[in-house]
Amino acid sequence: RCYLEVVADALGSVGVIVAAVIIRITDWTWVDPVCAAVIGLWILPRTWRLGSRAVRILVQSSPPELDLATLERDLEQLPDVIEVHDLHVWTLTSGMDAMSVHLMTAETADHHRVLDAARTLLVDRYDITHTTFQVEPDSHHGCHDVAW
């Protein structure tokens, strides 16, 4: 990807030099704005993609390639997990996603085992390594009562 950026910069520089030579030889000054427009159109798609990714990171939106419903289902299928709520996934920076979630478990569940299983699932299947889990026994319903 960086290679393409270097090539694009080099082509832009070559275009400016060629335009300068044409203007010097022919006095066709209209070549300069045409060259600038072509270079602008050349970099616009990459600029749009980069800007879109930056905005998604700034507004902490979920990664577009992640299916939250599938992630929630996978977490609910872990042993001793009864319910999943308050699931949030966002991108911290390119290639690094973060997640927080509440896992309601059976009263007798081994919370360490639940945490290990959830962490393994997220790292192995979803490549999410920055996670915060709140494990709640099914007798505790206080988190549902909190309103934003």
Report on the structure:
- The chain has a 3-stranded mixed beta sheet.
- It has 2 domains: 2-58; 68-145, Alpha-Beta Plaits.
- By secondary structure, it is an alpha+beta fold.
- Helix 4 (111-126) links the parallel strand 2 and strand 3.
- Helices cover 55% and strands 21% of the residues.
- Helix 1 (2-26) runs antiparallel to helix 2.
Query: What distance separates the N and C termini?
Result: 42 Å
Q: Which stretches are poorly predicted, pLDDT < 50 over at least 5 residues?
A: none
**Biggest pleated sheet:** 3 strands, mixed
Q: Look at the structure and give the CATH class of the largest domain.
A: Alpha Beta
Q: Give, in spatial order, the strands making up the sheet with the most strands.
A: 1-2-3
Mean pLDDT: 88
Give helix and strand order, one letter per element, not per position.
HHHEEHEH
CATH topology of the largest domain: Alpha-Beta Plaits
Entry keywords:
single chain, 148 residues, alpha+beta, Alpha-Beta Plaits, 2 domains, 3-stranded mixed β-sheet, 21% strand, rod-shaped
Short summary:
This protein has 5 helices and 3 strands; from the N terminus they run αααββαβα. It is α+β, with helices and mostly antiparallel strands and 148 residues long. The two termini are 42 Å apart.
Give the topology, please:
Layout: H1 2-26, H2 31-58, H3 68-76, E1 81-93, E2 96-105, H4 111-126, E3 130-137, H5 142-145
Parallel strand pairs: 2-3
Antiparallel strand pairs: 1-2
Helix pairs in contact: 1-2
